[in-house]
Amino acid sequence: MTATKAQTGRDEEQTGLSATGTETANITAAGGKCVVMWFRDDLRLADNPALQAAVDTGLPVVCVFVHDPALPLGAAARWWLDGGLRALHTSLAVHGGALLILRGSTVETMCDLLRHLQPAEIFWNRRYALPERDMDAQVKAFCKANGIGASSFGASLLHEPWTIQTRAGGRFRVFTAWWRAAMEMGDPAPALHAPQQVSCRPLSGTTTTGALGIGSRGIDALGLVPTAPDWAGGLRATWQPGEDKALSCLHTFLNDGLEGYATLRDCPHGVTTSRLSPYLRFGHISPRQIWHAAKNAVLSARGAISSQDLEKFLSELGWRDFSWYLLFDRPDLARENFRPEFDAMPWLNEADLFAAWTRGQTGYPLVDAGMRQLWATGWMHNRVRMVVASFLTKHLLIDWRKGAHWFDDTLVDADPASNVVGWQWVAGSGVDAAPYFRVMNPVLQSEKFDPEGEYIKEFVPELRNLPAHALHAPWQASVTDLARAGVRLGETYPHPIVEHRFARERALAAWKATTR
Question: What is the value of pTM for the model shown?
Answer without folding.
Answer: 0.91
